[in-house]
Amino acid sequence: MIWDDQNVIVHVKDHGLVIVSGCSHAGAVNVVRNAQRLTGESRIGGFIGGCHLTGGVFEPIIEPTVEAFSAANIGRVLPAHCTGWKAVHYLARAMPMAFVQPAVGTVVSF
């Protein structure tokens, strides 16, 4: 269990939770499930932040992470810094309607 994760969880009316995560050291799926557990809200309107899926140690969990994100029906996914090139491209292919490539100044609307 990794206890150093910090996230911002915002409930957006009619869309569910928007989660802003740093690196998701505990696992991006765990971050999402914890937000659901803490709030009692199952809908995930968005996930913004790092998924910590870069490098040989973490690449084996790219596929199950993306499958879990797809199953959770996340409205918008904006993968950040430590997500890694392979995982970003996997997310873009698997979730084309939800995927947003973030950059400085990116605005997300629901």
Task: Write up what this structure looks like.
- The protein has one domain.
- 29% of the residues lie in helices and 20% in strands.
- The protein has helices at 28-39, 62-71, 85-94; strands at 7-12, 16-21, 44-49, 76-79.
- The chain has a four-stranded mixed beta sheet with strand order 1-2-3-4, with helices on one face.
- Strand 3, helix 2 (62-71) and strand 4 (76-79) form a beta-alpha-beta unit.
- Helix 2 (62-71) runs parallel beside helix 3 (85-94).
- The longest helix has 12 residues, at 28-39.
- It is globular, with a radius of gyration of 13 Å.
- The model has no long low-confidence stretch (mean pLDDT 94).
Fold topology:
Blueprint: E1 7-12, E2 16-21, H1 28-39, E3 44-49, H2 62-71, E4 76-79, H3 85-94
Parallel strand pairs: 2-3, 3-4
Antiparallel strand pairs: 1-2
Helix pairs in contact: 2-3
Number of H- or I-type helical stretches? 3
Mean pLDDT: 94
Query: What is the total domain count?
Result: 1
| Strand/helix succession | EEHEHEH
The biggest beta sheet, please? 4 strands, mixed
Question: Kindly, what is the distance between the CA atoms of the first and last residues, rounded to a whole number of angstroms?
Answer: 33 Å
Regions with little confidence, pLDDT below 50 for 5+ residues: none
Radius of gyration: 13 Å
- The coarse silhouette is globular
Write out the strand line-up for the largest beta sheet, numbering strands in chain order: 1-2-3-4
Number of strand segments: 4
Oligomer: single chain
